[in-house]
Amino acid sequence: RLDTDLGLFSCRPELGADATELFNVLTCLSRQREFCRFLVAPDGLRSRALELIDCEAANARAGREARVIIKINHLVDPGMVSALYAASAAGVTIDLIVRTVCSVVPGVPGLSPTVHLRSVVGEYLEHSRVLGFANGGTWEWYLGSADFMERNLDRRVEVVIPVEDADARARLRDLCEEMLTDDRNSWQLGSDGVWRSTEEITGKEGTRSVFRALKSRALEGATASTRTSMD
Question: CA-to-CA distance for 57 and 68, rounded, in angstroms?
Answer without folding.
Answer: 10
